[in-house]
Amino acid sequence: MKRLVLTLVAGAFGSLLVLPIAHAADYEDMSNDANTIRNEQRDIRQDKREERHDLKNGNFGAAAREQADINRDRANMNENKEDLNRDLHENDYARHHHDDND
What we know:
mainly alpha, rod-shaped
């Protein structure tokens, strides 16, 4: 019986140590997603400038390649936004769900 109690106490204590680490990993993931989104937005702006330059100079093949880059960056950005929103929702849900039990 003593061994069972010690095991349960050790498990509870271990869980308390792991929870902040798990939350830190969630926040790091969300921060990485946000940084990736900002970088993709920057890339899209740069590609648009290059596309306008190519169109102005009649280089339609290069403009088409820039447009393909823009489309690819937008798709990646939208995936990262969905991931970030999902992470934010799950984190918010967990926080509110936890508060309901207090």
